[in-house]
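ingest -> validate -> predict -> emit
validate: passed (alphabet ok, no gaps, 297 aa)
predict: started
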Amino acid sequence: MFDLKALYEPTTVPEAVRLLADHPEARIMAGGSDTLVKLRDGKLGGLEWVSLHGLDELRRITLDDDDTLRIGALCSFTQVAESDLVRRCIVSLPEALLTIGGPQVRNIGTIGGNLCNGVPSADSASTCYAWDARLELAGPDGVRVLPIADFYLSAGKVDLRPGEILTAILFPHEAYAGYKGAYSKYAMRGAMDIATVNVATSIKMAPGGATIADARIAFGVAAPTPIRAPHGEAVLRGQAPTRALVGAAARAAIADTRARDSWRASRAFREHMLEELTRRSLLTSIRRAGGEIGAEQ
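emit:
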């Protein structure tokens, strides 16, 4: 048995927000793939919990009237990865989510929980960064929407105010229309392991496909929070894609990182892998976007 002081099970978002306001010390449980493990190990005993499991309204994937792609925060990794709508709009998000854990973890873990954990290794975080996602948050003061770049405050800390829950991940039409992307991850094991580093990229080619109109590069485990790499992105914009250009962009992107030494990998190794994975992801993104990689080496 788990050591729970109390478990509240709302069936609507307003009820969940009210319960969190009434019980400010309560923790939120979404899929439970992380929290249940900690509870089993005795690390979170004696606490109040608000379970979001009954909020079926947060398990929908739809297009809003303005073609914003809306992914409910309680959608499981498997649900998002298998969604035809997501695959059509953001092909690299399913790629990223399918690297998480194994089938059991992907069936229970939620994309909202993965983002709210605040860890820089979260596979969904860098990918959502590379697609300019916005996060919809419901709380006692109503609903607010903020760019994902403003959500991550520091290592393990996100901008969830008291009583708030993440309700949806939003991808405006302009964030994905005409873009193609890719995701690359390095971990010590091929499966059931968190990322040592990960890279997500998205590319939009100019009409005709001769030059790169826009580029986004996002990193995980390259800093205390997921980050973008503006130096690397700037190298690509307006240029004809060549292997030399992509290599220069990957090297420039490292200037935006703040990798550190840890028991998983040294800073030097992380930077080496970030550069290599960036190069690979950019090449894939450019090809998917209809660009041709020039012969220049």
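The longest strand covers residues 197-205.
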